[in-house]
Input
Amino acid sequence: MKTTTLKFLTLIVGISTCTFSVTAQNYTRQRDWVVAPLYGIGLVIPSRITLLSGTEAPSNAWVSSYRGELVKSDGTTYTRNYRTSLWGFETYYRWKDRRSDNRWSIGLSTAWQRQVFKLNHPFNFEYKGHNLVSTVWNFNYLRTGLMLRRTWMKEWAGTYFQLGGYYSTLFYRNTADGREKMEELTGGYIEGGTGNRTKTYNLQKGVPLIVPEIGMVYGENSGIEFSIAYYHPLQSVIQAETTFYRDNLTVGVSNTNVSQRVLMFNVKLPIAFVSKRKTISRERKEATPKPEPEVKREKPKKEPKPKRERKPIKERAPKPEKKVEPEIKPAPKPVPTSTPYDAALINKPMIMDNLYFELTKSDLLESSHKELDQVAEWMRANPSVEIRLEGHTDKIGDAEKNLILSRDRVNAVREYLIRKGVSSARIATKGYGDTRLVCKPSPCEKNRRVEMVVTKR
Output
């Protein structure tokens, strides 16, 4: 709070004295489009079953697939392999935050999805020589909708949370009698007064879904993602009333709400098309008021000078001979002394000792000037060297404030070196906050440091 107030007062004073300043900072502004093919395998959450009358009720369980024989109403059988899965793609617009690598995304998602529904019978019964134990359906539908994503990146990997609002349009279902249209029907398997009969009603041709999703990202732009999503329908797909008979007697009537509740495990391959990427560096500049134009003054007219009388020419004395002085050789130039920065390796961090700041602030203390003057003199003597200043803090207090403090401190060091004659294009900055501790537990003085990384010689 105190740092924000100080910056605001500094801005007001600058405007009142006809100067303007722009805080020096580097950041990458990136906007891109992403297309991500996806594939998922699901696990169906059991539907709710209510026993209306009798003592016999079917049961339901977690199921992801079914492979086995299905019996048609005419007694013939065939083998089918049903799996809860989806395949499709997402396309979204993505942009980076100004002060970090975290991102927001908004876009569209569409996928073809299949879902297995299995109802286990309360007892086994024979039907035309086959033992029936369950009823199996396979729904097929297309789901489309909007998605909003927040991604937290750390270098080349990260995590994300995504919220989708989708609408599933039902197309058909696979049953023992083959592919059927989505419509209400009545059917069953009864032989010798024993079996079941099912009637469906309240069919919905389309169902809205709310889908929260969490996942992991590998790759700064394109790469691979793994996620888990929960599909929560706002209404049931269909209701089924099943009646069970034994020796021509009704032993149970149940009602089942068939829903699209699924846990889906996804794999995505995002492909980024960068539309705009720009690294922005702003340096502090000062504008001074223009000098007022000078008023021209008329020069006084000169009075004519009186004519001088010519004096007789005197004989000139002979010029004395010039003495030849011995040639003085220039003194040899002093050989530059070596500094600890000459041994710095490319991309190897070197801790800058003797740097001191005001407590919880980014203001450099005067005791830091000697160290920074040596760095500036070394960089002026080596004009091809480029460096990156990295700031770190201890793990005390809020992590976001620590990140901002580390950036402000390396920016203060950068501004000092620029004032000492080092080109701003040769100095980059990066703040890590409390994410790269070198000693534990906190507080630990070694964690509060500024490191210099030579990126080019």
